[in-house]
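Summary for the steering committee. The consortium agreed at its last meeting that each partner would contribute one worked example illustrating the joint modelling workflow. Our contribution is presented below. We chose a case with several input lines so that the handling of multiple components could be demonstrated. No manual editing was applied between input and output; the record is shown as generated.
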Amino acid sequence: MFQPLDPLLHSELRLAVMSLLLGAEKAEFPFIMEQTGATAGNLSVQLDKLSEAGYITIEKTFKGKRPCTTCRITPAGLKAFEDYVEALKSYLHTDK
Amino acid sequence: MEEKEIMTAERSLEIIRESIEQSRRAMTKQSGRPMIWWGSLVVVFAVLIAYLWTNHGGPVWNVLWFVMTVIGMVGAKMMDRQREPLPKNIIGSVIGKVWSAFGIFCCGLGFITCLAGLGVVSFKALAPTPGYFIPITSIITFALGMASTTTGLILKNRAISICSVIAGIGGFFLALHFAGGEQLLVMAAVAVVGLIIPGIIVNIQTRK
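What follows is the complete predicted structure of the assembly.
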């Protein structure tokens, strides 16, 4: 029996962002952009979606005079990620 | 990476694995320079202290290790500012704690031995058996090897792990064969094998 996959996480970029943030206390926007290879615009949109769902928090501060956007995963995001991986298992067991 | 709504379960797992692996690689990339920095400092100070110990006034010059620690930390802080921002992650945090524990043990051991050297604590309180001496260089060498090997294992870097095991175990026994300032030369050799060489290897590997 397939378990439903969280549509918010079942997207390449959003899943990559969540995986990056999973082991990090926090990560800055340029780092996420570099690691995922996404464009600034696309990444910004996807981060907003994750933030709206309460999976991540986005903090906008300044580093000297330069704006600095920092993302971190929330407990709700962590739970959603765990549930997503758990749901994936049901697909893997019947795929082969 | 463009957004694709249709993904297989395998692709999802691959993305998760790739992201975690990328984070680890980024961490490894930035571990080479601090290793070379600290290794070079240990070599310079070990040779300097060995010379001063042998020719100018004895083991009191070991107090310079504390000066090295301060210089090392200031230099490491400056390197942190220069490099590209890396998120604080579990891997970095664990490695940081491993080296903090190493620093605490070495500074603690060094501090107590210094107190004994200055006569604040009696040697008898530290080593009650007459004629017994604390092989501090061997112990610190062993601890350095362990901390460095742990770093290599966490980063899954064979070069760091192998060099550190050789440096830690080899240095431990080798230092037992030397006394006075000479054993600091063993410490310098350990820093070359356990820190500088793996640091250079990591830099070459991550530059590719």
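The radius of gyration of chain B is 20 Å. The longest helix of chain B spans residues 90-118.
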